[in-house]
Amino acid sequence: MRATPLALKHIHPARMFSVMPALAHNTTTPPTTTAPRHPRVLVTGQLGSGLVKELRSMYGRDNVVASDIRKASDDLMTSGPFVYADVMNYNMLERIVVDWRIDWIVHYSALLSAVAEKNPALALSVNMTGFQNVLELAKVHRLRIYSPSTIGAFGPSTPKNNTPDLTIMRPNTIYGITKLHMELLGEYYREKFSVDFRSARYPGILSADTPPGGGTTDYAVDIFHHAIRHGHYNCFLAKDTRLPMMYLNDCIRGTIDHLVHPTPLPQSVYNLAAVSFTPEELTKEIQKHLPHFTISYPDPAHPDFRQAIADSWPASLDDSHARRDFGWKEEFGLENMVKTMLDKIQAQVDAEKAAANHPDSPTKAAMAA
Ligand SMILES: NC(=O)c1ccc[n+]([C@@H]2O[C@H](COP(=O)([O-])OP(=O)(O)OC[C@H]3O[C@@H](n4cnc5c(N)ncnc54)[C@H](O)[C@@H]3O)[C@@H](O)[C@H]2O)c1
């Protein structure tokens, strides 16, 4: 996360609401004043956790309700409200919207590409029914809705380089199909019911703190952990597979700028890009810091199943409309992203070692016994 909250520059009067201030944690206390207030946001899923923290620093802890069907980290739990919410259950979601008087939903819950490919039926339910529920709630309760799409919504017939916002989209993965369904349905609700639907096609997202969620770009996170812990990485993609990527802090900043933009934007869905690289280029950048790091690639005769997915995606995106319409600009290129990832993961490893060597550590006690 950025050292200073992204926050205050974003608090434009147009984003304030003329109702009440924050509700107390886990209560449904009725309104006590008519002073302008911040929007109340429900976030589903947990790529969201950094976003939740930023939104809480902007709008107050109790105005941002995090949710998932999995337990939250201590960090997320203690920084504000967290509720169980199964996105496939409309009534459960509606109850949260009503109880917490939600204004905006940031909808992150989804099954990612590799996981979806292994369980298409579940991916259809979570990604399509889940989104339809959120969209219908947005219509009924007049909510703003932000739901990320992905480079996976493109397909093998899409132009591969500098792919524009509007182009051929014939995805051949279940993940891509569900995300294209999301884009089109969101646009339909925007046109037909004036739902304020916003979406950006994320590239692969890199974070030192969040474990990869089963996507095809996961190699670009795993590689750092293996480089530091083992000095070697078995990459599941070919060395020349070029994919668009982004550091998580940039993704959060771009998402918030898009989400809070005070007026409706000309498009519902935007490409969002930062940097594109291959496993080989990433390896060379890591080797500048860890010269002994080595990598191996799959036998081309026996590619991993994720290679076909990666080959169907663009190598780079044209995101000029996002830059024009809501001021998108990345801060992390390949060099500072690699340095930041290595520094953060090294700090995690050092902390683990220090904890293991502490006299009260169970590992230390077991070795002494
Ligand atoms: N991580 C990336 O590189 C990337 C790239 C492009 C787009 N995206 C999009 O960003 C969003 C978040 O991705 P992520 O990396 O955090 O994925 P993730 O797999 O880490 O998290 C998805 C979350 O959805 C939750 N979930 C699953 N089923 C659910 C249900 N029935 N009800 C409620 N929650 C449920 C999971 O518990 C999980 O916390 C997704 O919409 C994804 O498509 C991510």
Automatic annotation (TrEMBL):
Pfam families reported in the protein's UniProt record: Epimerase
Molecular-function annotations in GO: L-threonine 3-dehydrogenase activity
Domain NAD-dependent epimerase/dehydratase residue range list: 43-272
GO terms under biological process: L-threonine catabolic process
EC number: 1.1.1.103
Signal sequence annotation: none
Enzyme class: oxidoreductase
Catalytic activity reported: L-threonine + NAD(+) = (2S)-2-amino-3-oxobutanoate + NADH + H(+)
Pathway(s) per entry: Amino-acid degradation; L-threonine degradation via oxydo-reductase pathway; glycine from L-threonine: step 1/2
Stretches that traverse the bilayer: none
Function per UniProt: Catalyzes the NAD(+)-dependent oxidation of L-threonine to 2-amino-3-ketobutyrate, mediating L-threonine catabolism.
Record-stated family: Belongs to the NAD(P)-dependent epimerase/dehydratase family.
Listed name of the protein: L-threonine 3-dehydrogenase, mitochondrial
Species this chain originates from: Actinomortierella ambigua
